[in-house]
């Protein structure tokens, strides 16, 4: 048990060091030697847990994605209407990208490995599946238009989430991701929300925007 705890602590130190370096220097510029030096351990200790820099990146993608998924799913387990949960959950996920270094690094690595890393593909497909279920619930509840295809709407939402994060990272080091998410919903709601629910969800979006941007400003 003690050996297992020590092994997990070593693995955690490697991941933490890699995340810090990837966020500071970028993935391509960071070598395994840099990670070993930052973690203050031997090359053998690193290779015991990770066979390559890519396998280490995969572990970060999986852990960061799990953190974001867990936060989103916890919100969606509430008794609130499905569309409220989706809007609130997207804001929370965007907010976590500024506070959770593993989630931020994992998201950046997903972009870098999107074409040839199974973990990235699984994560994107997982988001589409999760979002499709919530959108289908919102259609059943009458808040989204009944003629919509849940998978198509989900693809738009997930694509917008990714795009907002990419633009924020490129233009403000992620500082304006929450206002960008608010703009996404401001444009999207009139196109997908049922007419009788439009007024309510515009007010809901305004409250969510105010709450999350105010919290972000305080931190």
TrEMBL record:
Signal peptide: none
Domain of life, source organism: Bacteria
Domain HTH tetR-type: 8-68
DNA-binding region: 31-50
Keyword DNA-binding: yes
Keyword Transcription regulation set for record: yes
Gene3D superfamilies: Tetracycline Repressor, domain 2
Keywords on record: DNA-binding, Transcription, Transcription regulation
PANTHER family found in the cross-reference section: HTH-TYPE TRANSCRIPTIONAL REGULATOR LMRA (PTHR47506:SF3), TRANSCRIPTIONAL REGULATORY PROTEIN (PTHR47506)
The protein, known as: TetR/AcrR family transcriptional regulator
Native species: Mycobacterium deserti
